[in-house]
Amino acid sequence: MKKVIAFAGSNSKHSINKQLVTYASSLVENNEVSILDLNDFELPLFGVDLEAEIGGQPKNAHKFLSHIEMADGIIVSLAEHNGAYSTAFKNLLDWMSRIEGKTFYGKPMLLMATSPGARGGKSVLGMAQDRFPRHTANITGAFSLPSFNANFTNGKINDPELNAVLKEEIKSFQEAL
Fold it and tell me: What is the pLDDT of residues 10-27, one digit of tens each?
């Protein structure tokens, strides 16, 4: 049995990306899945002066990175703020990359995003697909859920075609584990 971690790149307590990643995680079969919450890994705003002042990186950055290191695979659903990563996620990535430049350790990763709009976070997905391989992510696929409020109800995707696409991405991800 492989160990998978899943998280939303958001610190919103009502994150639609956390709802999506939680649903996607429920589709992973015969593996252990842990859902992480960025709120459990609060960090100060990254800066090289602060890093020098505190003598390194905060414990929560090390803790989150250790979850990645111990996992066999990663599922992440990125929130899109003004076309980019949320500040909370970018800050976490900045701190982790100071500890380990190969932040994702070559682990299989399913990238996802959703938003209330019709593009479904495609800008942040594109950014991550370009950036994450430089941090050694092995991206097995990407999934965008457009118009979250119309396509996601009762804890799951209600559009059969979109749901089928996600299931195929989950299957590819599991095969890469």
Answer: 999 999 999 999 999 999
Domain housing 86: 3-176
Give me the sign of the Cα torsion angle 11, 12, 14, 15. Answer: negative
**DSSP category for residue 174:** H
- Find how far residue 138's CA is from the centre of its chain: 13
Q: What confidence tens digit (pLDDT) does each residue in 50-83 have?
A: 999 999 999 999 999 999 999 999 999 999 999 9
DSSP, collapsed to helix, strand or coil, labels residue 146 as: coil
Question: CATH code at 43?
Answer: 3.40.50.360
Count of structural domains, the chain:
1
- CA trace torsion 141, 112, 47, 70 (10° rounding): -60
Q: What is the 3-state secondary structure (H, E, C) of 41-58?
A: HCCCCCCHHHHHHHCCCC
